[in-house]
Amino acid sequence: MTDTFGELDPPARLLMGPGPINIHPRVLRAMSVQLLGQFDPEFTTYMNETMALYRRVFVTENRWTFLIDGTSRAAIEAALVSTLAPGDDAVILNAGRFGLLLTEIAERCGARVTVVEAPWGEVVAPSAVEAAVRRVKPRLVACVHGDTSTTMAQPLEGLPAICRRHDALFYVDATATLAGMQLPVDALGADIVTAGLQKCLGGPSGSAPITISDRAAERIFARRHIERGLAVPSAAGGAGLRIGSNYFDLAMVMDYWSERRLNHHTEAASMLYAARECARVVLEEGLETRFARHALAGSAMVAGVSAMGLRIFGDPAHKMANVTAVLVPTDVDCDRVRGRMRTEFEIEIGSAFGPLAGKVWRIGAMGVNARKHAVLTTLAAFEAVLRHEGFAFPAGAGVDAAMAVYAAAA
């Protein structure tokens, strides 16, 4: 007899790493709603509502604000493959793992990539970006707003203006910052911004909000080619080179999200329900209130680990509000601490990648977990584990310091 295994019953872990995080209960309930057909008028109404909600989350009037079915990386790939053709020039800002990811995807699109780099733990200077853009005259400039691999937040002010002066599109990967840090798309002047649900939005990985300016949409639609099985004489495509991916072809996905409802794929209904509810939760709380809550949780976490005698990695002037990188003391085993946090306290914290592997812990405080009780519980467990691992500091120092931050803000 084939073993059918047991019913799913995962442990009730507190996810305090760099993402994913615990899902808001309302989002979980929304995901359990019955499916509808993708062309059902009720369902397409939900699609339109989701577009309207995410315009407010992105703080934009962009018509083309919708969802990509897939993780946040799906939206990144869709943005790059739909704007970069083989031989195009691109300038990529790189100061961490996810800047390297943008570089790799752009190279896979056949673009000629110029990388403007900064060491991990720092951010890229706008002057270096302008020098590269002036020299290369790229079709696209791309950067990560908050790179969770280093916990640095790249300043964006001034970068869109550089792009406009040289007729380049400006793309921002805001996977880890949308709804947790300020990112007013229209005021900033970004052309394409993508995100994911599993960080500050408080949802599951698997749906990726995107917003596209009219300027970027015009360039994307210039490469529109209607899928052969859908083509009719009245559905003319663009004259440009066909986008090199079917699934990630934004021109075709935008046709589905438009009034035309030109079929591209079967919409992931449960993920749309989740994304819609994430946006409702965010907007009911209010963006400014939410930003302040994430900033306060991050400040409390920094105060707590610092009071324990631990050091924070990276430039403090450019630290993300929602993820903190803590340098591992010389005589402490990084993975053993993470293991004990999980097995003894049911709390997950993150490790790191590349040159930081084994050297930092990454502790997040996002969405429903950017709250006082989650921060204090994590710090209390972290204290207990570190003391048992032989790292000496005054008992209770971390929790007391974090509580003082919350008391000062009350």
Strand order of the largest sheet: 2-10-9-8-5-3-4
- How far the N terminus sits from the C terminus, by CA atoms, comes to 60 Å
Question: Which percent bin holds the helix content?
Answer: 40-55%
Second CATH tier, the architecture of the largest domain = 3-Layer(aba) Sandwich
Strand tally: 13
Order of helices and strands: EHHEHEHEHEEEHEHEEHHHHEHEEHH
Gyration radius (Cα, Å) is: 22 Å
Secondary structure tally, helices = 14
What's the average pLDDT? 96
Backbone shape: globular
Text of the CATH class of the largest domain: Alpha Beta
Commentary on this structure:
With 410 residues, this protein is of the alpha/beta class. It has two domains: 259 residues, Aspartate Aminotransferase, domain 2 (3-Layer(aba) Sandwich), CATH 3.40.640; 123 residues, Aspartate Aminotransferase, domain 1 (Alpha-Beta Complex), CATH 3.90.1150.10. The chain is 41% helix and 13% strand. It contains 14 helices and 13 strands. The strands form four sheets. It has a seven-stranded mixed β-sheet, sandwiched between helices. A two-stranded parallel ribbon has the order 1-12. Helix 7 links the parallel strand 8 and strand 9. Helix 2 crosses helix 10, helix 11 runs antiparallel to helix 14 and helix 13 runs antiparallel to helix 14. It is globular. The N and C termini lie far apart (60 Å). The mean pLDDT is 96.
